[in-house]
Amino acid sequence: MAYPTLTMRKIREVLRLHFDCGFRQREIARAVGASPTTVGQYVRRMERAGLSWAVSATLSDDELEARLYPPPPQVEGKRPVKARERAG
């Protein structure tokens, strides 16, 4: 299930409230009008990107978005063929 994407303004507010103010996910969710799950996803994306709040505050919206949503890894080679496809 895909979660709704927040505007960069709200994403920055989520990150600020979490990392700078120490609010809990439910409190942040109420403040920005999102679900606690969505808030948690952005916090985890920030942690996976290895960014601190101080660094993220200096990035442009495009740079922050690129760090939070890196391209998927490229897989080399072919996918294995399913047994049904071989027999077909």
Assembly state: single chain
Mean pLDDT: 87
Radius of gyration: 18 Å
What is the H/E order? HHHHHH
Domain HTH IS408-type: 11-88
InterPro entries: HTH_IS408/IS1162_type (IPR017895), WH-like_DNA-bd_sf (IPR036388)
Organism: Paraburkholderia sabiae
Region (Disordered): 65-88
TL;DR?
It holds the Pfam family HTH_24. With 88 residues, the protein is mainly alpha-helical.
Overview of the structural elements:
This is Winged helix-turn-helix transcriptional regulator. The structure is a single chain. The protein is an all-alpha fold and about 90 residues long. It has a domain at about 10-70. About 60% of the residues lie in helices and about 0% in strands. The protein has six helices and no strands. The protein has helices at about 10-20, 25-30, 35-50, 55-60, 60-70, 85. Helix 1 packs antiparallel against helix 2 (about 25-30) and helix 2 packs across helix 3. The radius of gyration is 18 Å and the shape is elongated. The protein starts with 7 loop residues before the first helix and ends with a helix. About 15% of the residues are buried. The model has no long low-confidence stretch (mean pLDDT about 85).
Question: Any key phrases for this structure?
Answer:
mainly alpha; 88 residues
